[in-house]
């Protein structure tokens, strides 16, 4: 792909997003893309799913169109709609349709947040047909040869009301993500923010303390993303005690006892 193409396509990622592999997920994703298989990413909040997709889109040189799914999202939000203008109506492609026509990677983030009657529109794209019906236009689009669909969700938030149907799940190959090992996570903080290795290690130790409280007062532990926030604050001159309370504790819980436990852990680690 030429430099001119990179400039012309706003969905191309031109600067390498940092991603630290945990295993062989990069090689496996490349194999899935070569076969144009739809991909499902599962893992806790802030563990690197979205960064992984961005990194792979950059590595493959493919445009990336990301959709943050929500419970109010309709099929029209994905496919497109007619717009009323002064001289009549005009059709505007939605992000999924744009990706299908362009040959982009379409990433539906937290897909379980979307209604099930919305997500079924992806079914014809995830089997041998690789087609997208636009009923409102009476059009059937054959997906561009480079198109790939990627979805993600957090299994910890699954419920009977918010889960993917088996008829949807069994259309994808899957990757399990989790928080990195301590030394790897420390390295990520150093690379992302430029803080020293000792401070990074201390932040990771606080994160691991919180993660042990999952199911015992916390719905979810401290994410790598929040650790990056804390490290960024510390690098900017904020005292570690304040940065950790602000970035690691206050966002994840309103429970006074849990807050106190984590605040004491911060004091002990940075004593």
SSE layout and pairings?
Layout: H1 3-8, H2 25-34, E1 39-42, H3 49-60, E2 64-68, H4 75-79, E3 80-85, E4 88-93, H5 95-102, E5 105-109, H6 116-119, E6 131-134, E7 139-142, E8 148-153, H7 166-169, E9 173-176, H8 182-193, H9 197-211, H10 224-235, H11 240-249, H12 256-269
Parallel strand pairs: 1-8, 1-9, 2-5, 5-8
Antiparallel strand pairs: 3-4, 6-7
Helix pairs in contact: 8-9, 8-10, 9-10, 9-12, 10-11, 11-12
Features:
271 residues, alpha/beta, Rossmann fold, 2 domains, five-stranded parallel sheet, 12 helices, elongated
Explain what you see.
The protein has 271 residues and is an alpha/beta fold. The protein has 2 domains: 3-176, P-loop containing nucleotide triphosphate hydrolases (Rossmann fold); 182-269. The chain contains 12 helices and 9 strands. A hairpin with a 2-residue loop joins β3 and β4 (88-93). α9 packs antiparallel against α10 (224-235) and α10 (224-235) runs antiparallel to α11 (240-249). It is elongated. The termini are far apart.
